[in-house]
Specification:
The chain is of the alpha+beta class and 430 residues long. 37% of the residues lie in helices and 22% in strands. The protein has 12 helices and 16 strands. The strands form 3 sheets. Strands 1, 2, 3, 4, 5, 6, 14, 15 and 16 form a 9-stranded mixed sheet that branches. Strands 7, 9, 10, 12 and 13 form a 5-stranded antiparallel sheet that branches. A hairpin with a 5-residue loop joins strand 1 and strand 2. Helix 1 packs antiparallel against helix 3, helix 3 crosses helix 12 and helix 8 runs antiparallel to helix 9. The termini are far apart. The structure holds (2S)-amino(hydroxy)ethanoic acid and manganese (II) ion (2 copies). One manganese (II) ion binds next to loops.
């Protein structure tokens, strides 16, 4: 009996092949690291250059023109059948990582864009596709997230450019040095024809796995805030200073951190994390005089996030007052919650349904470049199941069958998006 070869059976076969290639590429790119023994890839670093070099031939073989802009975003374009002024769909994510990262956070979304173009098998669409690998989303080098996507949609303001990395290099100095090596790289800008944005990403959480689902459709992304704190006590001799006379900055910070955990645990949907801490002068036999640490607070609602930041910083002030020391706190990054575009969400959902998979709508606790782009373009995100919900960790993983489902859904999305353009015209923001 002959089997009916439908578009979807063809797409499913293409997707299965593409999934194996995508995972092999994630493995190859995971070797591009700035720190031996772990995966660490930061803004404009040597490892990021290596990734660009590895990816260029892949994009070129897919019929795409590829380059990098002046902030190190990798930009690859698959032309439209209807000429350069056709609408453009961006498919993007980031290529940088956190310290000791897994192999899929960010890079999977960039390789998904490549896999979809390859899945077209040379077929051109009534719109162009631009695949972007953002140069910095995590903020690992400078503490500030979304440098690549922010540069794409608006200028990096002067205050931001003054931020320094651990070596004391500012963002503007890093950009100057990058520009000297890449003098022909164009200023980052959103193509005038850019009409919509799609990002694939691992969920980085346990929800899809708990529901037995391969794919999720992101409706909104949580509000987030990042702060620096510095506790100022008084350094002293660990052997001769009675406990009652100490002004121990680390003891104060430690007391505060237990309160951070309690405050966050008491509010439904609130998370708060102290991920970085350093004690000065750092001698085994010296009472810490200064402690510097970070604070990351997230909640689906802006008001709850900002109220939590306020309560947590007030707690620090109360603790230092009792201990006779001081604290300085600066909220240096806030990113309001973002709701993605209902029309784009709807075609993402239709696309997943066409594959025969079911999906669920969800809020992302993790931040993504879609938060930045969604304020300028109708945007959608499709999550892939993350076994164990493990991410920002070398054990981060993704199932090949789920990657195949995502590629299959993505190929359906490309045709759904063409239909949408035909129905609504190229300005989808109306
Ligand atoms: O921190 C985040 O939410 C993301 O992984 N950058
Ligand atoms: Mn991340
Ligand atoms: Mn990410």
């Amino acid at each position: 009996m002959s089997t009916v070869v439908t578009t979807d059976t063809v797409r499913a076969a293409i997707a299965r092949d593409g999934a194996g290639t995508l995972l092999a590429r994630c493995g190859a790119l995971a070797k591009c690291t700035d720190k031996s023994g772990e995966l660490l890839r930061t803004f404009l670093s040597p490892a990021m250059e290596q990734v660009h070099q590895r990816m260029r031939p892949w994009f070129e073989a897919a019929g795409m023109t590829v380059g990098a802009d002046r902030v190190g975003n990798l930009r690859a374009i698959y032309p439209s059948i209807s000429g350069d002024d056709s609408p453009r769909l961006l498919i993007a994510s980031h290529l940088d990582t956190v310290p000791n990262a897994g192999a899929y956070d960010g890079v999977l979304g960039v390789l998904m864009g490549l896999a979809l173009v390859e899945g077209l098998g040379g077929r051109q669409l009534p719109y162009s596709i631009e695949v972007i690998g953002f140069s910095d989303e995590e903020g690992t080098r400078f503490g500030l997230p979304f440098i690549g996507s922010r540069a794409l949609v608006s200028r990096l303001d002067e205050a931001l450019l003054k931020n320094k990395d651990a070596s004391g290099t500012t963002i503007s100095e890093a950009l100057r040095d990058y520009g000297a090596v890449h003098p022909d790289s164009p200023e980052p800008s959103l193509a005038p024809s850019a009409s919509a944005y799609l990002e694939f990403h691992i969920e980085q959480g346990p929800v899809l796995e708990s529901k037995g689902l391969a794919l999720g459709i992101v409706e909104s992304l949580a509000s987030q805030s990042r702060c620096h704190l510095a506790f100022y006590g008084f350094a002293g001799h660990a052997g001769t200073t009675p406990m009652i006379l100490r002004r121990d900055a680390l003891a104060a910070a430690a007391e505060w951190m237990t309160r951070v955990e309690m405050i966050a645990s008491d509010v439904e949907g609130l998370v708060a994390t102290v991920g970085q801490i350093s004690a000065e002068p750092g001698g085994v036999n010296v009472i810490p005089g200064v402690v510097r640490c970070s604070l990351d607070v997230r909640h689906a609602e802006d008001a709850a996030c900002s109220a939590a930041v306020k309560a947590i910083l007030n707690e620090a002030r109360a603790i230092v007052a009792r201990r006779g020391i001081t604290v300085e706190a600066e909220e240096y990054h806030t990113q309001p919650a973002v709701h993605l575009d209902p029309t784009m969400i709807a075609i993402a959902e239709t696309s997943v349904r066409q594959t025969g998979y079911t999906s669920m709508r969800m809020t992302s606790g993790a931040g993504h470049d879609a938060m930045v782009i969604a304020r300028h373009l109708p945007s959608a995100m499709i999550f892939l199941r993350n076994p164990g919900g493990i991410s920002h960790h070398p054990d981060e993983s993704v199932l090949e069958t789920d990657v195949a489902a995502a590629i299959h859904a993505g190929l359906c999305f490309l045709d759904e998006f063409a239909l949408l353009l035909r129905k609504k015209g190229s300005d989808l923001r109306v």
